[in-house]
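# nightly structure sweep
# worker-07 picked up a monomer target from the shared queue
# config: single-sequence mode, recycle default, output format = structure tokens
# input follows
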Amino acid sequence: MARLAIALIAGVMALFCAALTLGPAQIGMMESLDALIAGDAGPLTLVMREIRLPRAILAIMVGASLGLAGAAMQGYLRNPLAEPGLIGVSGSAALGAVIAIQTGLAASWALGLPAMALGGALLGVVLVVVLAGPRGSSLTLILAGIAISALAAALTSLVLNLSPNPFAANEIVFWMMGSLADRSMTHVWIALPFMAVGWVTLATLGRGLDALTLGEDAAGAMGISLARLRLKLILGTASVVGAATAVAGAIGFVGLVVPHILRPLVCAQPSKLLWASALGGAIMVLAADIAVRLILPERDLKLGVVTALIGAPLFLHLIYKTRRQLP
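# output follows
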């Protein structure tokens, strides 16, 4: 297990350095790092500190959040096909962001879009908690999440349909594809408090998720409060996914694919899968963001498109593998 932790941490650090030094501009690695650390008032220092550094930090934060939330959701639902968007937080956050773009709030106030996305995520999780009820089962949680996701998708389509001009519609569509371009340290400071709360909340679920592998009755007999576990899961997932969607848009497949890949390496133990998936998610988003900048840099390739192209084949493999295991 220690080897896996070392390998994942080394992968994150290597890709973080690569994200700081690689890009369309042909600048040497040592020259880039020197400009970042030593710094002066030159353009390279501004590029490193104002563009590349916040982008790389956000990639780690978003990837870790989605990977951690995906592992927690799959552990609680005991289903490898579960993912953070299942409880409707992603769709609700996207709806808030789309309304900000549609109403012009995003253009008139720099923080309008992330603020509205966080507000949408908060409203979505409140509706899910109310619909699922304090003593509902995992099935009621899934049904409530699907209902909120469907409602948010319908309202997003309505807002898109009512766009006053094709430019507004294009902006909404491109934002929903997910991206870390043009982000600043302001976005880092906006998302960090919410993500930190969510990381701590989800990290405390390990013992309960381990107990749930024996069944709900056995977990209850071991002193695990399922109602409290579920509430912490919802609030933690909403906090990290809402903040991630607010600053990066809708990025799919990370929370679904990463825990599935790492599960055999941690002997399918949910508590160990939490931290492994957080590191794995950071690696996946960092690698995808580097690919975005190196592949077709002049066409503004979106991050969500790349993660989908990576995740969809793996998802199909998961379906094929599940079918083969059926009697």
